[in-house]
Design brief:
By secondary structure, the chain is an alpha+beta fold. Helix content is 35%, strand content 39%. The chain contains 1 helix and 8 strands; from the N terminus they run H-E-E-E-E-E-E-E-E. The longest helix has 59 residues. The radius of gyration is 25 Å and the shape is elongated.
């Protein structure tokens, strides 16, 4: 009789353990996509603030030749590009996400910043754009080129007069 009672205790323990593991698996299966969506939304929000601050610093240097400002850039995710090529002058950031952050095909303006959102298969692409084509001639370390950033950078933004706005990285 004691042997059967001991076996029942082990069977109960095994069933409770299996039930606990199944419950945790279900919670993770449901919770992880929600968590990823929240992380992507937070990344977009942080990048939006970064780009608006960067835009403010660039526009502050319009005050005259020789004007310069330091700026700290921290890009955690996505493709952040400073484009200083002729006719392309601007800042662009894009990221693939599974989160539907806004309606695809919509373009939103928030001050000087444009948001574009489009569907690409089962994912979405969000793009943030600051366009300086008819406003300023951007240079990267004195050259007409583009630079892709990921990580942390110290930048010096300087108005070089007729040569344009020079963005130099330390």
């Amino acid at each position: 009789m004691l042997k059967i009672k001991g076996q029942a205790t082990w069977v109960s323990a095994a069933l409770y353990t299996a039930l606990g593991i199944a419950t945790i698996a279900i919670i993770l299966a449901v919770g992880m996509p929600i968590l990823e969506n929240l992380k992507d939304k937070n990344t977009v929000s942080q990048t939006k603030e970064l780009m608006l601050e960067f835009d403010g610093v660039i526009r502050e240097t319009f005050e005259g030749p020789g004007s310069q400002r330091e700026f700290f850039i921290d890009v955690k995710k996505g493709d952040f590009v400073i484009d200083g090529r002729k006719g392309k002058d601007g800042l662009n950031w894009s990221m693939n996400t599974k989160a539907k952050l806004m309606e695809p095909g919509v373009v939103l303006d928030e001050g000087n910043l444009k948001f574009k959102f489009k569907k690409n298969g089962d994912e979405y692409i969000i793009t943030l754009i600051l366009d300086y084509k008819n406003i300023a001639d951007l240079k990267i370390d004195g050259k007409d080129e583009s630079k892709k950033l990921l990580g942390r950078y110290n930048a010096l933004i300087r108005n070089d007069g007729e040569k344009g706005i020079n963005i130099m990285f330390k």
